[in-house]
Structures are given as C-alpha cells and as structure tokens.
Amino acid sequence: MLFYAALARNSNRIRDAFHSSCLSHSIQCIILLSYSYSNPFIILLSNSHSNANASSFLVDNYGLFDNLQVGNGVLDLACGKGRNGLFLVSHNVPVLFADNNEAHLQSIPPELESAGTRAKKSTCWLIDFEAEVSEGRNPLAGKSFDAVIVFNYLHRPLFPFIREAIRPGGLIIYETFTVDQKRFGRPSNPDFLLGHDELAQAFAGWELIESFEGEASNPERAIARLIARKQAKK
Length: 234
Prior knowledge:
Layout: E1 2-6, H1 11-24, E2 29-34, E3 41-46, H2 56-60, E4 74-77, H3 83-89, E5 95-99, H4 102-106, H5 108-115, E6 123-126, H6 129-134, E7 145-151, H7 159-165, E8 166-177, H8 198-202, E9 207-216, E10 221-229
Parallel strand pairs: 4-5, 4-7, 5-6, 7-8
Antiparallel strand pairs: 1-3, 2-3, 8-10, 9-10
C-alpha cells in the first residue's frame, strides 16, 4: 500500500499522523523521507502482510472474529501461499494452513516467524484433499475448527466434511467462482465452478450472515460469497 502526502513545513505532524494510522490498523510501516527543494514528499510503505493482501471479503467481515471464541483455530483450506490466513494471524487468530502445494506452504513459515508470538499456535499441513476423498477417506475426520475459510477453491465432496469439522457456533467463510465466470475467462472447468445457489444450499440450515452471488470487480469475475454460522448446541 502506497501513500503520498505533502511534507513542506509540517512534516513531523504528517509523519506522526501516518504512523498512528498504521498502528491503528495493525500495519507495520516504513517511512521514507525524500527531500527536494521543489517537491518534498513523504512515502509510507507497508512491509507486513497487510490488509491489501487478503480478500476484501475477509477483511470487511473480520469483526465477526471479535465475538468468536477461538480455541480450536481456523482452517485455511486450500490456502495457497496463505494470504488470507496470514491476515488472521496478524490479528492473533491461530490458523492451520492446508494445501497440497509444498512450495506454497514453505513460503508461510517465514511469515509466521516474522509475526512472532501472534503465530505461535499456527502451523502448516501438507494435504491433498481430493486424493484423500477419492480414496474414501474424510481428510477432516477428528478435527474441529472455530471457522473454516475457503477462497477460490471448489471440491464438492468436501462440503459435508467441512460442515462436520466446524464446531457448533463456528463460522464458514467461503468465496469462489460460479458458472458465470466463463464469460470472463478462467477457470472455465465446470468442476471448479459453483452452480447458481449451490453454495447457499451446501450450508442450508445454518444461520446466514452474509450471502452474495453475482459479478465482482478488480478483477472482473463471477463469484458466490457466503458467511454462515453453525447452530450452537442447545
């Protein structure tokens, strides 16, 4: 994230204001002062895993975690390089990063190390969910999570296992492409594209917190989004 502000005579005041802004948003910042007689300026760069790296859908709904008792941690399913899970880690939420790409997972521990004590309960899990399911196994058997987050990934046979693995009162946060994505390009394989209303049906009976299906921008794409809460035990 890149910020520009006039420096001139009030450079200290601007620097302090930007620094406070970074702290209030849990962003580590580097301040570069460049002095030019004709055009002095200040640049602030984030050098941490900032909000800009995570899905805006997750960032915008982070407040849900403030009221979620986190004891079991969050599963970042098919996490890739972990951009969304790392955002949660930066807010002291323990995350299990799960993916079948070992190279991607290897990029995460250095990020966790830089997060210090905030990441002490976060780990990586090399797992091929699709292979496990095809061999008749539930890859989430015996596991319980306070929330599961899934972005840009779909393997339909996992839906019941995800439902089962989320503890009562826990959350599902899911966003991926729909069949209308074919108008915009890849992915175009129907195996990786949700049908209309399919995501909502996969978590039918849960408390619906937010749901969206349609076109999104930056980049243009066709997606479905859902946040739902599993019923708490009575």
